[in-house]
Specification:
Largest sheet: 5 strands, parallel
Oligomer: single chain
Strand content: 5-15%
Radius of gyration: 32 Å
Number of strands: 15
Number of helices: 37
Length: 978
């Protein structure tokens, strides 16, 4: 019986091995084990034998701890049982019949029984039939779980039948140390010695039979993790699969942008088929225990979205298993002979439209589009997974294929990609406006290349980031950090206009090549200026610089601003003081503060204490934790490029999190990331509008709270004045440039105000502006209204940035990231091919962008219309604000066009007849501005344009494009509703 079972078990193991190894090579995983052998051993001891991750949940963790160790210790009972078949009184060599072993065997068996009782209670109390989506077992194979508990119980009672009968017959060698076995023996003893001997043999055979049946059950169920979880942990990324994203690879080798020219048809970009996953990915799928811890912590699942990290892994596992015969077939002839069901599974798309429930489809693609794009990359799933499954890496790999090959992605990302490619920031703002945040400061801000030649001359490089340079609330954080560093005597400098986006949003959105281009550009700048120590206010910039730029040859000591400020406070260079004359409440002493952990600062980089220590040291303020805090903190909803995507399914993540913060009764919600600040501020607006939050509650960065405390002030919710305070005038330094001295210091307000000195046409003024409906800078009412920016050419007649004396020297290169006058994916110009109506219609119906990266075959140069005709075209009424999903436009790709150029099928017209843009931004751009500006026209257009058009054209100062700051956003419930 044992030989028969082992034969079929061996076949199953071999099959599992072959299926797993059908994935792509992952040489880095094997090398990682041998390079960090000590770490690998320590991880096995802590995570496998010490059950560290499982014990994060105390009760179920403790239950699993004892069940796990029961399997380990009770192996000795099976060895003794098999030995007893051949020799009565058999003892394990080297261990013998030690009373300690006898006690441990009985004790762990008893604790295992209590453990499975605990599991049964937990599963009963969390029945999906009763709790629905709130149950972490929703979608798990419940029947198999109950069967496993029954089989464990069978193992336990047969142990005690065998050992109790031995004790009754006088054959148990452990004496009274085996206390439970002797207690069972006392029950059997009255039935006589002969009965005890018979029961001993029956118990022995039953115990072995149960073990063999259980072995086959484990090898064909989710409980396979008993054997492969230690292997999966061994080859996992260390210290965890968070922080840096796994690089895009093909055939086990990293894929770089320059490899495109030599790429053959076998090179995979991302994951488009299950066999494109590495063997570690397929091992992940088979390791899943279906415990649902990831699902219970996922912000998408908790706000009624279709993404469940557990179900995503299970769908991939089931698809891999069903497709396995196709993967293992040695030739096309063998594949042709496979059953129709296997061939159908082989043809099934990995990502796309599905049938049935999106998270558990019954047909169509394996993974639904909405499932893939709901992920915020917060890392809660990876953090909680007890067997080290790398959910986020797999999602990002599938996004890469959808973006780079299928061109199937949310249409809102077109603006993100174009802005990052052409202007170096996700909002498509002017690349020369990165120093406008420093206007009005009463001390000079050193700029590398102007005030200092090299970063060797200063202690720190202050990495401002795109949000810190362009988003108006984030500018307040930037200014606060600069003021604090100046007060503490810290010598720092900024890159100014030499800085560009780190590429985080593009990489998390699947556009690996835009990330690589931006990262390579920044890496060269950092190496050229000898950057060593960097402080960043954005958690996403912090994570990218710290964990992902080493692949580009840059070794940096990167800290978050809360870490550096905490160090300065400890060194007594900054001293928070009590607020004098305060009358309590939010206006001073007695105010309470709660803190939201940014995912990319906390879970991704394990920085939890410095922000809290800063808040706890503020006098006259009480620090209050939210129920979900630390590594169980709930995401704000902005990560994974979700900041630039609509949230149309379920509850808004930011509102869910804001509601929790408001429930603490805190007067101030502290954040440490500009993305978090935008999302929570928007959520707070929604809650205040609904009457669920007090009007005096506000969202502020930790740096702002610290700055106010150091100054002896209480940050209070600002009330916007009619205009800027009289008497504040800005002036440049004697040498000009961007150093930012002022004649009269302009105080840094806690919240943006109308007329703020840093608000310009290159400012994202309202929280609504950071979403997919963001207005473009530099004279466009839409992200797509500046055609020259898409292909790397700066417009010849563009308006100069206001306060240009602070903006630094003009750029010496074109606006495009990768080529002078070109785009990321330039293709040779070919003869224009007229578009058919069918092609135009199909393009407009495409969800993300239609064709593939490699489908750009015949770009046509559109014939420009005469300017006079454009001016006399009949005008159309502005698009309604509710129109959140305008039709995707359709037009030929111009010479040197970009991957993300969506063809225009329908052109919306503004009041003056100029197109308001394409894609999602166009529908709301006219709602965001009273007089949307037309796209810039060639110079001759100004001679023939109508009088109305002349009025709306921007003047040289860019005044017509000053962002609106007095819009009432109380009518909106969210960031994306305007």
């Amino acid at each position: 019986m044992t030989a028969f079972t082992l034969f079929f078990a061996g076949r199953r193991v071999w099959w599992l091995y072959r299926v797993t190894m059908s994935g792509q090579p992952a040489p880095d995983r094997v090398q990682g084990v041998f390079r960090r052998l000590g770490v690998a051993v320590r991880t096995q001891l802590t995570e496998v034998f010490g059950q560290r991750k499982l014990l994060k949940w105390t009760v179920p963790g403790a239950a699993h701890f004892f069940v796990f160790w029961a399997f380990m210790i009770l192996l000795t009972v099976y060895i003794e049982a098999y030995g007893s078949l051949f020799e009565r009184g058999f003892a394990i060599p080297g261990i013998g019949h030690s009373p300690i072993l006898g006690f441990l065997q009985d004790f762990i068996a008893m604790m295992c029984f209590l453990g499975i009782v605990t599991f049964a209670i937990i599963r009963w109390r969390n029945r999906p039939a009763e709790l629905g989506r709130k149950s972490r077992f929703n979608g798990s194979h419940l029947g198999g779980a109950w069967l496993t508990l029954i089989m464990i119980f069978n193992v336990l009672w047969t142990i005690f039948l065998f050992r109790g009968s031995s004790a009754a017959a006088g054959n148990l060698p452990y004496g009274n140390a085996a206390f439970i076995s002797h207690a069972v023996g006392d029950i059997i003893h009255p039935f006589g010695h002969g009965t005890a001997l018979v029961l001993e043999q029956i118990g022995l055979l039953l115990h072995i039979a149960v073990m063999l049946v259980f072995l086959m059950l484990v090898l064909h169920s989710k409980h396979l993790h008993i054997f492969i979880a230690p292997i999966n942990v061994l080859f996992g990324r260390r210290p965890m699969a968070l922080g840096a994203i796994k690089p895009m690879t093909s055939g086990g080798q990293p894929v770089k942008f320059e490899d495109l020219e030599e790429m053959d048809e076998d090179m995979a970009l991302g994951v488009g088929r299950v066999e494109d996953f590495s063997w570690k990915g397929i091992l992940d799928f088979n390791t899943c225990t279906e415990c649902g811890r990831c699902q219970s912590q996922c912000p998408a699942w908790n706000t009624d979205k279709p993404l469940s990290p557990k179900m995503l892994i299970l769908m991939l596992r089931d698809h891999t298993t069903a497709k396995a015969p196709y993967l293992l077939a040695g030739s096309d002839e063998e594949r042709a002979k496979l059953p129709a069901s296997v061939l159908a599974e082989a043809e099934r798309p990995l990502v796309g439209e599905t049938e049935g429930l999106a998270w558990e489809p019954t047909g169509g693609a394996v993974i639904d589009n909405d499932v893939l794009w709901s992920c915020t990359s917060c890392g809660a799933c990876v953090n909680q997974c007890p067997v080290d499954i790398e959910h986020v890496d797999h999602i990002m790999d599938m996004r890469r294929h959808q973006v780079l090959v299928e061109s199937n992605f949310p249409s809102e990302l077109n603006g993100l990609f174009r802005g990052m490619e052409s202007k170096g920031n996700p909002w498509n703002m002017s690349a020369t406006a990165r120093l406008e945040w420093a206007q009005g400061l009463d001390f000079p801000v050193k700029v590398v290349g102007e005030d200092v030649e090299s970063l060797d001359e200063v202690e720190w490089l202050f990495w401002v980031g795109c949000a810190g340079a362009y988003e108006d609330r984030a500018k307040k954080t930037t200014r606060a950090v600069a003021e604090l560093l100046n007060m503490a005597g810290v010598d720092f400098a900024v890159l100014g206009n030499g800085e560009t986006c780190t590429g985080d949003p593009a990489r998390r959105a699947g556009n690996e090549f835009i990330f690589q281009g931006l990262a390579a550009q920044n890496a060269e700048t950092l190496k050229e200026h000898r950057a060593k120590k960097v402080v960043a206010t954005c958690a996403h910039c912090f994570n990218t610089l710290k964990n992902e730029y080493d692949a580009f040859g840059v070794e940096l000591d990167v800290v978050h601003h809360t870490q550096l400020l905490n160090r300065l406070v400890r060194e007594k260079k900054l001293t928070p003081v009590a607020v004098p004359g305060s009358n309590g409440g939010a206006n001073g002493a007695g105010r309470s503060i709660t803190y939201h952990d940014p995912c990319y600062l906390g879970r991704h980089n394990q920085v939890y204490n410095p922000p809290r220590e800063l808040l706890e040291i503020i006098p006259d303020a009480t620090f209050t934790e939210m129920p979900r805090s630390g590594e169980r903190s709930f995401c704000c909803g902005a990560g994974g490029a979700r900041m630039w995507m609509e949230e149309t399914i379920g509850e808004r993540i930011n509102v869910n999190r804001t509601r929790e913060a408001v429930a603490t009764g805190a007067d101030q919600i502290a954040v440490a990331c500009p993305f978090c600040r935008v999302m929570l501020a928007d959520g707070l607006t929604a809650e205040q509008q609904d009457g669920n939050a007090r009007e005096e509650v506000e969202v502020l960065d930790v740096a702002q709270l610290l700055l106010a405390s150091v100054k002896g002030e209480a940050p209070v919710k600002a009330k916007a004045p009619a205009g800027i305070t009289a008497g504040t005038t800005t002036a440049t330094t004697a040498g000009g440039g961007t150093s930012g001295a002022v004649a009269t210091a302009v105080e840094t307000k806690d919240e943006p105000e109308t007329g703020d000195v840093t608000q310009t046409s290159s400012t994202v003024t309202e929280t609504s502006d950071v979403g997919p409906n963001a207005k473009a800078s530099g004279g466009s009412s839409s992200l797509f209204d500046d055609p020259s920016s898409l292909f790397g050419e700066e417009p010849q007649a563009s308006s100069p940035t206001p306060n240009a004396e602070h903006a630094g020297p003009p750029e010496e290169k074109s606006g495009s990231l990768f080529a002078e006058g070109g785009s990321l994916f330039d293709t040779p110009a070919q003869a224009a091919v007229p578009e058919t109506e069918e092609a135009s219609a199909s393009a407009s119906e495409a969800k993300g962008g239609g064709g593939s990266l490699f489908d750009i075959g015949a770009p046509a140069e559109p014939e420009p219309a005469p300017a006079a005709e454009k001016a006399s075209e009949p005008t159309q009424p502005p698009a309604e604000a509710e129109d959140e999903h305008p039709e995707t436009s359709s037009a030929s790709v111009p010479e040197g066009g970009s991957l993300f150029d969506i063809k225009e099928a329908v052109k919306s017209k503004s009041d003056d007849g100029a197109p308001t843009g394409a894609g999602p931004a166009a529908g709301a751009a006219t709602a965001d501005t009273e007089d949307p500006a037309p796209a810039e026209q060639p110079a001759p257009a100004t001679e023939t344009a109508s009088e109305d058009e002349k009025v709306t054209k921007p003047g040289p100062s860019g005044e017509a494009h000053q962002p609106k700051t007095d819009a009432d956003i109380s009518e909106t419930g969210s960031l994306f509703d305007l």
